[in-house]
Design goal:
binds pyridoxal-5'-phosphate, 7-stranded mixed beta sheet, 14 helices, alpha/beta, 5-stranded mixed beta sheet
């Protein structure tokens, strides 16, 4: 387009667009271009292309006329059924078909949560640091976010209780608490059972919704499964979001939202798309064949080794004063540099040497996290992880003494 056409509608932009600076269109990194320890992408080689092709053929043979048709905005009923079976079997969560909404990934589920609960200026409590998608969506909906720090057992309940009491004293009714209780992004921390129960008690006491983002539940490398908040909630205050992006295929971008049937009924009116009927049929076929469970087992094996390679390499390569988290699952390790260091300086140098990571600042609502790096272990293979951490270690060793 010529410049005049480019600017044609700029003066008509919504407040949302005006508040959102344009960003680059970032393609998925190619392993041959750099060692990416940045985005939480799944391992490219284990994406189940052959099994998905077979499931696609079966879906078209069996249900072609419906798979290629418009459908209900709740999503394909056959997929809702398969998801209910999986959630009951693996996650200990028994839900009825009316409690499930199929979405375009957990990202759309979060967007719908905000559409359902947030008016501009409403207060939201969120663990911090957190998933950058949550930072983005709460900003877009103009929520007033109160960040709650984490310790190794997840969100700090003493501080959460203090903030809830202070908000109440000011006459503010917060709408929701956003949490990733299992293998948190970016720290990898998991909230133990006793804290989950206490958190639900607090939510009940202050009548606040709890949004449980569970993108990494199935990627456990050690330890026992802990009941989900949604499975422990007896007050109907939790909304649960999940995704097939990390455990099946991110390119399909299919996820789900579980909540009270009345909320789902509202959301099916707010949301007009039918969550991709065609892919819904494909995913349901794939799950029904049993191939999904064996894929998950294979993935956990691969990711466990990568996670261990990451931790080993950090222990070998990082200089004194650098700290990192150790988790039992998920994709991330959160690194903290000594006081006065700046991860974005390291990032520029790392990129020049072919290594990429996420700077900590984008995991905070207010730009903190300057001393942090988020490292992902699911995308690069073990050898690349070791090489990448060796390069990073060299850069950080050079940099740290000069601070
Ligand atoms: C905690 C968390 N929630 C949600 C998502 C997004 O999931 P989806 O790909 O289904 O939109 C991610 C992706 O990185 C994530 O880390």
């Amino acid at each position: 387009m010529v410049q005049a056409q480019e600017n044609g509608i700029a003066s008509l932009y919504s407040d949302l667009v005006r508040r959102t600076p344009p960003g680059p269109r970032t393609p998925a990194p190619r392993p041959q271009d750099c060692i990416s320890l940045a985005g939480g992408l799944p391992d490219p080689k284990s994406l189940p292309a052959r099994e998905i092709a077979a499931a696609t053929a079966r879906a078209l043979e069996r249900h072609g006329e419906w798979a290629l048709q418009y459908g209900a905005s709740q999503g394909y009923a056959g997929l809702i059924e398969q998801l209910r079976i999986k959630l009951a079997r693996d996650n200990g969560l028994d839900v009825g078909p009316d409690n499930v909404l199929i979405t375009a990934g957990a990202s759309q589920a979060m967007d719908l949560v905000c559409r359902a609960l947030i008016n501009p200026g409403d207060t939201v409590l969120s663990e911090e640091p957190t998933w950058q998608g949550a930072v983005r969506v709460f900003r877009a909906y103009q929520a007033n976010v109160v960040g709650i720090p984490l310790d190794t057992e997840g969100v700090r309940l003493d501080i959460l209780a203090e903030r809830l009491a202070a908000l109440k004293a000011q006459g503010v009714q917060p709408k929701l608490i956003y949490l990733i209780p299992t293998f948190q992004n970016p720290t990898g921390f998991t909230m133990p059972l006793h804290r989950r129960r206490q958190l639900l008690d607090l939510a009940k006491q202050y009548h606040v919704a709890v949004v449980e983002d569970d993108a990494y539940f199935d990627l456990r490398y050690a330890g026992e499964r802990i009941p989900m908040l949604s499975a422990l909630d007896d007050a109907g205050l939790t909304i649960y979001t999940g995704t097939f992006s990390k455990i099946m295929a991110a390119g399909m971008r299919i996820g789900w939202l579980i909540g009270p049937a009345s909320l789902i009924a509202h959301l099916t009116q707010i949301k007009h798309d039918s969550s991709n009927m065609f892919l819904g049929h494909v995913v349901a076929e794939y799950m029904a064949s049993g191939a999904f469970e064996s894929h998950l087992t294979e993935l956990v094996g691969i990711y466990r080794q990568r996670h261990e390679a990451m931790l080993d390499a950090l222990a070998t390569e990082m200089p004194e004063g650098v700290e990192w988290t150790v988790s039992n699952g998920g994709s991330f390790t959160w690194v903290t540099l000594p006081e006065g260091c700046d991860a974005t300086t390291i990032l520029a140098e790392a990129r020049a040497h072919g290594v990429d990571f996420v700077p900590g600042t984008i995991c905070y609502y207010d730009g903190r996290g300057q001393r942090n790096l988020r490292l992902c272990s699911s995308f690069a293979d073990e050898e690349a992880i070791r090489r990448g951490i060796a390069i990073l270690g060299g850069i950080i060793r050079e940099y740290v003494p000069h601070r």
